[in-house]
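Lay summary. Proteins are chains of building blocks that fold into shapes, and those shapes determine what they do. In this project we predict the shape from the chain. Here is one chain we studied, written as its sequence of building blocks.
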Amino acid sequence: MGDDSTMGKMKGKAKEAAGKATGDDRKAAEGRTDQAKAKAKDTMENAKDKAAGVKDSLRGKGES
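And here is the predicted shape, written in a compact code that computers can read:
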């Protein structure tokens, strides 16, 4: 969802591909880790947005 997490995923994929191409297992693993971090960040952003939506909808019901 966020641009930072999307960029992190792309960087992770590039790093993983470079590691695989050069036979550098460590760099490939770093790439997979970067992708996982970006995915976790994206998931947290989505959860935060959903929580804010629930909060707003609950506030709206009491004011009717």
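What the prediction tells us: The mean pLDDT is 89.
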